[in-house]
Amino acid sequence: MQRLAIPLALCVLCAGCGGSDASKAKTKTLLIAVNAPFSRTPYLGQTIANGAELAATAITTKDGVYRLRFKRYDTGLSAGAAVANVRRAVADGAVAIIDEGTGLNASWRIAADADVPICVTYQGGEGLVDPTKRPNVFRIAPTDHGTAFRLAEYLVPKKLKIALVIDDSTYGQEGLKSLRRSFAENPEAVAMRLSVPAGAANLAPEVLRARRSHATALLVWGEPGTIAGVVSAARASGWKVPVYTPATGGDPLVRQQLANHPDWVDGLTFATGRPTAEVGPGPFLSFQRLYEERFGVYLVGVKTPDGADVVQPPDLAMYSYDFVNVLSAAIQRAGGIKDGKKVIAALNQVSVPGANGDHRGFNERNHEGVVDDDVYFARFEGMTYQPVKDDPLSRTLTALDQTR
Amino acid sequence: MRRLALIGALGSALVATPASSAAAKVVPLPWPPTVLPTEPPLAPPTEGVLPLEFRLKGRLQNWERVVIGLEENGLPRSIRVLQTIEVNRLGDYVFSIPAPVQEVVPGPGTASPPGQRVNQILWEGFSPGHRVLAAWADLRLAESASSLPVRVDLLTTVDGRPLEPGERRSGDLRVMLTISNRTAATARSFTAEPEPVSLAQVLSRIRSAIRHGVFAEGLNVGLRGAETPETQQVAAPLAVEGTLRFGPGAEIDGAPSGVMPLAAQLDGLKRRRLRLTIRGRAVNMSTPKLELRVRTTAVKDGVSAARNARDRLARTIELELTYARKRQYDMFLSSPDFAGRSSTTYVYRTAAAPKTVQLTTTTVDRDDDKVGWIVLGLALAVALPAAAIAWAHS
Fold this sequence. Notes:
The complex is a heterodimer of chains A (about 400) and B (about 400).
Chain A: H1 2-17, H2 21-26, E1 28-36, H3 42-54, E2 58-61, E3 64-74, H4 79-91, E4 94-99, H5 104-113, E5 118-120, E6 137-139, H6 144-155, E7 162-167, H7 170-182, E8 190-196, H8 204-212, E9 217-221, H9 224-236, E10 243-245, H10 252-257, H11 262-265, E11 269-273, H12 282-295, E12 299-303, E13 309-311, H13 317-334, H14 340-347, E14 351-353, E15 359-361, E16 375-381, E17 384-387
Helix pairs in contact in A: 3-13, 4-5, 6-7, 8-9, 13-14
Chain B: H1 2-23, E1 25-28, H2 32-35, E2 60-70, E3 76-87, E4 90-98, E5 101-106, E6 115-117, E7 120-128, E8 131-139, E9 150-158, E10 161-162, E11 169-181, E12 185-191, H3 196-212, E13 220-223, E14 228-234, E15 238-245, E16 250-252, E17 259-266, E18 273-285, E19 289-296, H4 309-329, E20 341-350, H5 366-392
Parallel strand pairs in B: 2-20
Antiparallel strand pairs in B: 1-13, 2-3, 3-8, 4-7, 5-8, 6-7, 9-10, 9-11, 11-18, 12-14, 15-17, 15-19, 16-18, 19-20
């Protein structure tokens, strides 16, 4: 609560400063671009943009007060559109870009040439962030590497025979690279590796193959539709195999697609970045309250067994929120935005209290704002999820209320 | 009657206590962080250092291995530190270590990689109850060398002329090696007539801290009169051991294999240095190689009940400050838990001069690779048919 209050107080103070004529003359507007799939996956795009807009609204430096303006650029999950958006954002004078991650392999150069930092707040692909080769690229989101290794660390001791089900989306293929590495030392834990088409209507044949391989668990790395498809095919055939997924398992779409069979969702376990830290749920709950006051709650569209409406906590939004606060601290340290290189260098040197109570920041050797240790496991029961109890990190976390 | 006597005795004790308290005043013993030099541990200017959170205090242990590369004359050429921190608590950790770092890389057995900022090593993560964090840090020599515990001077002459690095000569050999404990410092202190009971408590706290390897705290002593300012010389006691190794072509008295063992206890006050002069015969010989391991040793406890109270106070302060000085050298890089357990081994080793290599660093991205392959493919597509045609017509 106290941590969250600091950036907010800063905003209020900064906003107050703008009232006098003298400071009005010095107030400038900084554009921050949000490059996300607003049309194809509106929940994801809007959550990223909302989080950013909830953060600091103004920055005070020795050059004066900068007000922040946010502009949304829709990628439609197309790499080409994402690259074109970055080009437009740079032309529009954006000082930073918050990016879902699509098309980043090409778009980062455009931003780098203009000394504009890009922060990925969703995709976790291993090659996206590299402080040496891509010094302007940062990320605040769980990495595929961290998620895959944490999944292996969690599942291997359970002595399961795991069928890895990977869809052919970019997300799935990036995940496969990390899974290969994470299970490399325990090949005996993998029963088979199965590639499935993303968004396919019927995955029954693939799930049957997995069952025939004597798998005792499924690890599905793919888009929410793929996860729902695999769960649906397994349960419809009467196979009560445990299903594990990366963060996409927590996406509302999975529950929406399985809304007719709520019991099929029970037991689905996903790995994602923790929304609360050891300090407790206070910071995140404050963030959630602010978020919901401004943007409303996100109703998943399903109900608990008691008939309560299920809402989605804005855990994804905290990443873009945190980045804007880190960026503000970096701009202050750099003394303004005249020199983009200075701002990028300053991003390596500052930390801020994050929305979940953690410290958030980057450094010269690591541009990942979410450390691998921060990946926890949550398990669905009655359409809401709770941290699991058989993992040291997860059992320290508090369950979040997800009903209204 | 007995009860009455007891009550009476208690009453007189209660009346007497305020009077005796008024006579004594309580003062802290000299506070090491203010009366001793601030370094080590190294403390370069930093911004936004993340301090250790209170819940981790007493749950960390710190080990360091400081590797000092020496020039042939004994001057430091490079300093690298392997810092290993053991976190013994379930939960989050985030802290930074101030250090004049050039580069930080993961150390052996580390559970997570270290981060690097200007003058800081960063650690962040979650400990499942026990976690080892290790980093190798290359330090900037100019900001680190003055805090090393010993100075090494090594002069090798052949026929009275210094033998230069890489040079080989024959003749009368003379090697002069001096290893100096340079941890001595002068601290502001005082003398006074102490309250014996309170002095005994303070002494007990210091001895307990020494036993447990932690910082001594809560050192307030009652005095019966005014204190008189004075200064106190203290130093970290060091154990030095190692070898001076001569290459082929050296004939040294007492070292037929060409290896001269070295060992000394240098308390820094009564015995400050080890001086060795080695004579022999050199035949096409190059400069000898030195390897030393330096560690702090137990501090000498000179407080004895046989002494008078004033003298006991003086010895107690000496013990406190000597132990504090020793602890400073037990953490060349600061331990995240300043008051916790720490130990450091300094390894001094003759090191070859770094070769000056013109490095051409080309950062090639995957996309660049693709472009390269495409260009190569196109070139081959043109060149191969052309070569075939040329060959057919030859």
